[in-house]
Amino acid sequence: MDLPFETSEYYDRQEMLFSQLPSSSIVIIPTNERKTRSNDVGYPFRPNSYMLYLCGWKEDEGFFMAHNRNGTLESKLFVPPRDTSKEIWEGIRIGVEGAESWPVDTTSSVENFESEITQMIGQFENVYAILGISEELDKICNDIEGLSDPRTFLDPMRRVKSKVEIKHMQEAATIASNAHKLAMENSTPGMGEWEIQSYVEGHFMRSKSTWSFPSIVGGGSNATILHYKANDCTIISGDLVLVDAGCEINGYASDITRTWPINGRFTEAQKEIYELVLKAEKAGIDACRVGTPWSAMHRVVSEVIAQGLIDLGILECGLDEALGDEVKLDGPFRDFFMHGTGHFLGLDVHDVGGGRQGDPGNPDSLEPGMVLTIEPGLYFADWRGDIEIPAKYSGIGIRIEDDILVTEDGPVVLSSSCPKEIDEIESIVGSGV
Ligand SMILES: [Mn+2]
Questions:
Q1: What is the pTM for the complete model shown?
Q2: For the chain, which residues make up each domain, given as ranges?
């Protein structure tokens, strides 16, 4: 069996879910569907995160079902049956019998799913199902009145990581830290953004992991595009390169951003902006403490950024005016720092349970075991016509992002082995060329 956790971890999660549900409840969760790219070629398959969370099932078909009839929790996994003619092409399946060692009470074939579920659903007063993923399940649930979404209960659970989850997240953060370091070492003026990407993702692959989201590698003013994805330009001497990349291992994601000069030396103007972003990032990390309201990190980071922009003469106003509305923080500093300060991290890179500013379902405050990113940035987009930018900062885009575990003893930076001080970066960039 190939599971990242002991089966008891999954049974505990199933128990914790049902401890929140009324009696006579049934929960049904599909895994993701395969998506065709063309003809016989599919897009890479990634199992559904809730499926991974509740039972670790990784094959590209399957349904998790559990109910609490008579006060006892019973779970069942519907899986693709053994089928030699399909296995010749796609690989050997675990099958109904093989799945018996998964953390569920019983197993069945997906071929029986519709008839079994249709017949069962009527026996329960409360039906919980995740819709919008499986056409088959959506069709079955079409006529059910008062159907509820189990994610209301699962998301807050996923938000707080167990000790063993944290172990996997530390591994993901360490692999991504080393990938960034390797790319720094091999940086040299005139190389392509795609070559930097190959060092980063090559290291992911060598570490038996994959990317957790498509890597962002932006040289020069491409760094001012927040989710830049072309990665097809060359990076010339004097330019910075921004790399926002993370990996996934055992289902868990990391997400790190570093920005460095491709020739190994920051210019004075680049240094001024870099130091400001770094100062804001450190202040944000320091705010990741148990009991801190979620909005506090963004406020702390925004205040440092806004004050820094004033000190550099980029904004000509006082701090209050620079920050704007007390709650929305929508002042002119947002022309240069236009995204949120961070998000939760876990099975998904933008993990569930709230996180981004304004998301519904944000927690009131930070708890031990939560993992989030802190990622301030400053962007002086020379291609924008709507804002005025001092010439010396034109085209600079800098973001610094780390992965933070909240503990009773303060913030723990899971990605701390990834260099971010100016002198560290200057000594490592190009050292492997
Ligand atoms: Mn991020």
A1: 0.96
A2: 7-159, 163-428
